[in-house]
Write a structure and sequence with these properties.
The chain is α/β, with parallel strands linked by helices. It folds into 3 domains: 62 residues, OB fold (Dihydrolipoamide Acetyltransferase, E2P) (Beta Barrel); 211 residues, Rossmann fold; 127 residues, OB fold (Dihydrolipoamide Acetyltransferase, E2P), CATH 2.40.50. It has 10 helices and 23 strands. The chain has an 8-stranded mixed beta sheet, with helices on both faces. It has a 7-stranded mixed beta sheet with strand order 10-9-8-11-12-13-14. The chain has a 6-stranded mixed beta sheet with strand order 1-5-6-4-3-2, with no helix packed on it. Helix 1 runs parallel beside helix 9 and helix 8 runs parallel beside helix 9. The radius of gyration is 23 Å and the shape is flat. One of its GO terms (molecular function) is rRNA (uridine-C5-)-methyltransferase activity. This is Class I SAM-dependent RNA methyltransferase.
């Protein structure tokens, strides 16, 4: 064994999907592509604040749950997936455990966490590709794990095949764009009307670029191509008809690059778990607040249970939700509000019989604390980040709430990500009275 390698025993999996081990001096070690129970020979990397990074160079004793990775890009270090080498059943149980652990850390050690709902591969309808240009060579794909390098994708087992099929033509288009100098990105949303493309480049869009985009859209059957420079506002560069998607039976015209749940099956699982947490008949006048409502993915099904007040900070999303809700005749009122800067106060929450909170990855700590202090009897928290879930759940535990149900949803299969739908309800009996006195 060389001085640069170390024999390690892997005891668990970290939040990023790396194997967890311990160096002889007690330093935590994160070993890429290693699984629990394995003995590995690892090449040690630099120390970091939380421990040491390492790469498994030899599997001395493989886990019975180790399987051949189904995608050739996994061996190249593609960062789109983290645990393709792990059996699906083991992945599902790990993700369930991550949700249970997050709730336990928050003060709910006995939370009823259901089995993970896993969506099938090949169904992701949204992709955010990185782009790198070197002369006429275009790298189009996902970043390598822990690197700024772009893995040039020829295939992908998690994306919808219709997105994968677009990659060769998109790569050829990018070679011909003067607006792409060295780097950019491409967001592809698969709508009912086909792929919807938002390009971001590091150069201005020349008139000939606009003609090129229009011809590409017509040739490839894209209803719309939008463009933006770096982090600037998007503008429609080419359009050949409406770009729409149906969410819970309601047709929506999303703005370019709009957030969608990663797969139709993932969306359905979240909606099912959310509705299961709601009583058939809501108290009072049946008003429901949908916080961080986006395009209305959850507002539309909620409108079948009561009147919905939808709050969202993005103006384009609010406009799309309002227009779709108006056409459908559903009882939804959409309001633009930056909930990170101006969360709903306790008094504003008082009229609602239930609140659904679906925050971005960073969570919603201030809003969660206000909800825990409010008179709302039921809060359904839709989490995409176990760390944020754990932090945001703490005020509910401190105020005596209970977890009625928690459902993990794995719609980013083979990644380290997991979503969860958690129903918080007020504890019955004396605790509720003491809660109101706070």
């Amino acid at each position: 064994m060389s001085a640069e390698t170390q024999a390690l025993r892997v005891t668990g999996i970290g939040a990023a999907g790396d194997g967890l081990s311990m160096l002889p001096d007690g330093t935590p070690c994160f070993v890429t592509r290693a699984l629990p129970g394995e003995a590995v020979r690892a090449l040690l990397g630099p120390r970091r604040r939380d421990g040491c990074a390492a790469k498994a160079v030899e599997i001395l004793s493989p886990s019975p749950d180790r399987v051949p990775p189904p995608c050739p890009h996994f061996a190249e270090g593609c960062g789109g997936c983290a645990v393709q080498h792990w059996a699906p059943a083991a992945q599902a149980e790990w993700k369930r455990g991550r949700v249970a652990e997050a709730l336990s850390r928050a003060g709910f050690p006995d939370a009823p966490v259901a089995a993970t709902v896993t969506t099938p591969p090949g169904r992701r309808r949204r992709a955010d590709f990185a782009i790198r240009r070197a002369g006429q060579r275009i790298a189009l794909g996902f970043h390598a794990a822990g690197s700024a390098e772009v893995v040039d994708l020829a295939t992908c087992i998690v994306l919808d095949p219709r997105i994968v099929a677009l990659l060769p033509a998109l790569r050829d288009l990018l070679r011909r764009l003067r607006a792409l100098r060295r780097e950019g990105s491409a967001v592809v949303n698969l709508l009912d009307t086909g792929p919807d493309l938002l390009l971001r480049t590091d150069g201005p869009l020349a008139p000939e670029d606009r003609a090129t985009l229009a011809a590409f859209a017509a040739r490839e059957g894209l209803r719309r191509i939008a463009w933006a420079r770096k982090d600037g506002p998007a503008e429609v560069a080419a359009q050949h008809g409406p770009a729409t998607i149906t969410l819970s039976g309601v047709e929506v015209a999303p703005p370019p690059g709009a957030f969608l749940q990663a797969s139709p099956e993932g969306e359905a699982a979240i909606v099912t778990a959310m509705l299961a947490a709601l009583p058939e008949k809501l108290a009072g006048r049946g008003r429901i607040a949908d916080l961080h409502a986006g395009l209305g993915t959850l507002s539309f099904p909620l409108a079948g249970r009561g009147r919905v007040a939808a709050f969202e900070g993005d103006a384009a999303a609010v406009a799309a939700l309002s227009a779709a809700g108006g056409r459908s005749g559903l009882p939804i009122a959409a309001t633009r509000r930056d909930l990170a800067r101006q969360p709903l106060a306790v008094a504003e929450l008082a009229p609602f019989a239930a609140v659904v909170l679906d925050p971005p990855f960073a969570g919603a700590d201030e809003q969660a604390a206000l909800l825990a202090r409010s008179a709302v009897p039921l809060v359904v928290y839709v989490s995409c980040n176990p760390a944020a879930l754990s932090r945001d759940a703490r005020p509910f535990a401190a105020a005596g709430w209970q977890v009625a149900a928690a459902t993990p949803v794995d719609q980013f299969v083979h990644s380290a990500q997991v979503e969860a739908v958690v129903a918080f309800v007020r504890a019955k009996g004396p605790q509720r009275g003491s809660m109101r006195e706070r």
